[in-house]
Amino acid sequence: MIPNVTKEIIDLGDGRSISIETGKLAKQADGSVVVQMGNAMLLATVVSARTASPGIDFLPLTLDYREKFAAAGRFPGGFFKREARPSDGEVLTMRLVDRVLRPLFPKDYHAETQVMIQLMSHDEEVMPDALAGLAASAALALSDIPFATLISEVRVARLNGQFIINPSKAQLAESDIDMMIGASMDSIAMVEGEMKEISEAEMIEAIKFAHEAIKVQIAAQERLQAAVGKKEVRTYEQERSDDAVLAKVKELAYDKYFAIASEGSAKHERSEKFAGVKEEVKASFTDEELLENGDLISKYLNKVNKEAVRNVILDNGTRLDGRKTNEIRPIWCEVDYLPSTHGSALFTRGETQALATVTLGTSREANIIDRPTDQGEERFYLHYNFPPFSTGEAKPLRGTSRREVGHGNLAQRALKNMLPAEVPYTVRVVSEVLESNGSSSMATVCAGTLALMDAGIQMIRPVSGIAMGLISDDATGRWAVLSDILGDEDHLGDMDFKVTGTSEGITACQMDIKISGLKYEIMEQALNQAREGRLHILGKLTEVIDTPREDVKRHAPKIIKVTIPGAFIGALIGPGGKVIQELQKASGTTIVINEVDEQGEVEILGTSPEGIQMVLNKIDSIIFKPQVGETYSVKVIKMLDFGAVVEYLDAPGNEVLLHVSELDWARTENVSDVVNMGDVFDVKYIGIDPKTRKEKVSRKALMPRPPRDENYVPRERDDRPRDNDRGGYRDNRNGGGGRDNRGRDDRNSRDRGPREERRDDAPREPREPRNEDNGGEPQES
């Protein structure tokens, strides 16, 4: 049977478009769509159980996003050629969609629900995470699952002053804004991104631009929903309620909760008092009432507690710990806390504390990214750990949580643009959250800044961060923006808005809105109030360390980068890596060689200046190339019968033969008469000997040439003409004049003629004539 496919097109207005279709794939899911932009295709499905599991009082929602390697025509890396646990990039995309969708399900809907999104086809010009929210919402739109409103998400960038929706990776690399915005038709729900020190007004402008594009995408979902036929929302078992129990709980607990919230107490003290009220209220009910309505009583106690705390803030303008709405908790900081790390800092704000460390390494320690949609490496990365003891709890450790991945990524994005491009190291920051009562991710940003400056990383400007909250009352129209929120204020409030930046502007943000219809007026006040708090915190950081250390610490590794011609890479590595391994062992350094544009980029990392210099000397030696006519200092390292082997002092390990004939102008019988082992002197580089094809140097070329012996008589010049058969001196090889046909003259009969006088007038020793045949014995005269 041919499937009935329904499709809607979203025009992005610049020649690009997004299509949403349904009816062809995954028809047994409660809702399924394929979203396509260019060659990128995502399949989104949603399935929800018909009944809730007994005893579940929350929404067990699973939001899953996966990228298939086949989508990019690639094999999974590693030994097992199968996709396994999700990458950090996939986890971050899951969080982007989850944070928008989760608040939109009914609060009393507790059925197991799964939203699954997978990348089936990849396009290098399309970033699929910007389409995931649209795909998830469209799948829900076609289902009968209860859902408050349609949403969508877009990425907004700014290139050359112009905003772009869903830019390509190349465009994003040149942009000064990278923000993901999730929203419904009438309200912003989620904002996350990084910026290059933009203003609060510019951020609001980018959000508004993105919201307009989201409205167009939601309208397309509504058209698709209408074309397919909107399904009737399924019925589900409603949560039990009892107005009489609620009234009794409120009567017994509200005033007590209000009084405790007004005291301005610490977290554990306040928690104990709230727990005491809970026990008192429960004690006022009979055992039969507790058996019948115990779950309702607990739920209503939480509801009344939330109402009392919110009213304290709105009525009195004070908060759970006694602060005003714009007041920051006390801060103290310390750098260089850990003696053996390359950099460390402790940041404490109220009851939140983070210990950050910095480790410096070579490019070999870069974080390798291998995803179907992204390959490369990170030379700066940050890891965030949130152990259970930080909140005074004992919980099982089950690996890195999605929350830890998300908070670490936010802090990394906040800091990374403040590291100059010329930092030679791979830099890893690790934040250990030791105490938590609100905004540990922002404490991580502050601790990370201090640790980087302590490590000697020349940051462009220090970065601080703050978390903002919101308490609002639709009935009365009252609202209050809270600076530096507590954990309870995050839990009971309507907004969690984290903002990081420098003295010049915003570097990153993350905002989650729990209510609909958030006014831009409130968002603007939150941003302006956040700027005041951010600058206050920044002042506390710079009181401890205002500029980065001039250099890395004594025990931290120093890194030197040199570039060598590509032809010498093999010589530096050696056969089987022998040269570089022995050099690393002898120098106590780490050496990394990367080939870039036919050049070798050599990184030398070590704590010993002598060891680093040893490597530099070896590199100089390997790439040393003497120039013809230049003078070099050499040292004799080996004596031979026919000369001396000398080593260039400027390039240890480079040897050349100084032939006996080049030692001195006078005839040298023994090499040791002129030079000896260990002698140092200068030589001139002659070049390549055309006969031996070996390098040639000369000592005598730098010495004055002695005058000729006064008894020297030059050979008389014979100007007699020579004919073609060389008559008068030598006959041709075909006969005549004393030379036989083999070309040898008759030494016993030919008149040799007069000889020139010898310079020393000494009679010449008679030569024993030999037989004409090769190797013959001497013949008689």
UniProtKB/TrEMBL annotation:
UniProt xrefs under Gene3D superfamilies: GHMP Kinase, N-terminal domain, K Homology domain, type 1, Nucleic acid-binding proteins
Keywords in alphabetical order: Cytoplasm, Magnesium, Metal-binding, Nucleotidyltransferase, RNA-binding, Transferase
UniProt binding sites for Mg(2+): D490, D496
Chain's gene name: pnp
Residue stretches making up the S1 motif domain: 629-700
Similarity comment text for this entry: Belongs to the polyribonucleotide nucleotidyltransferase family.
Annotated localization: Cytoplasm
Protein name per Swiss-Prot or TrEMBL: Polyribonucleotide nucleotidyltransferase
Keyword match Transmembrane: no
Principal subcellular localisation of the protein: cytoplasm
E.C. no: 2.7.7.8
Organism: Flavobacterium arundinis
InterPro entries the record matches: ExoRNase_PH_dom1, ExoRNase_PH_dom2, ExoRNase_PH_dom2_sf, KH_dom, KH_dom_type_1, KH_dom_type_1_sf, NA-bd_OB-fold, PNPase
Class in the EC hierarchy, top level: transferase
Record region (Disordered): 694-781
Catalytic reaction list: RNA(n+1) + phosphate = RNA(n) + a ribonucleoside 5'-diphosphate
